[in-house]
Specification:
Elements: H1 2-9, E1 13-14, E2 22-26, E3 36-40, E4 46-52, E5 54-55, E6 62-67, E7 70-75, E8 80-86, E9 88-89, E10 96-101, E11 104-109, E12 114-120, E13 122-123, E14 129-134, E15 137-142, E16 147-153, E17 155-158, E18 164-168, E19 171-173
Amino acid sequence: TKEQIKKKLNVAYVGDFKNGRAIIRLADNEFGLNNKFGFVDKDGNIVIPMKYDDVHDFSQGLSAVKLNNKYGFIDINGNVVIPFIYDFTQYFYDGWARVYKNGKVGHIGLNGEVIVPIIYDEIGYLTDKAQVQKDGKYGYINKKGKIIIPVIFDKAEARDDGRFYVKLNDKRSY
């Protein structure tokens, strides 16, 4: 159980198991400062050392981890799959993860390939399309990162009927 693993390893925290791994946290003082994170297997063996400053649960076989103030991704054996070059990341979902770098946001694939260029100020929730914002202007991209509504509008919204509402210089159109 998680409590047994916690006692066996003398760690402050054991997370839920995902992809056969659970997050463990070693706090080196009573205030939880200087936390270090790693992973254990279901037998309570440390399989990824507690050396990371932050970790996310495994999703699609990868975990976003932070080391030396940058995020990258490791596999369930601790091998670096995507280098530590991002300011922040989210977990993988449907083959992509949201990444942040130099104040901009984009999406990468499971091998680190850029799907949506890391040039946007904001990206909405990606289904088959997502609203994007860049330099105060709005548009839409598809799942592959291709612009489907140019990022030139003061406002852009997808409608339930498949059309888009756009506004540019006080002119509105569908």
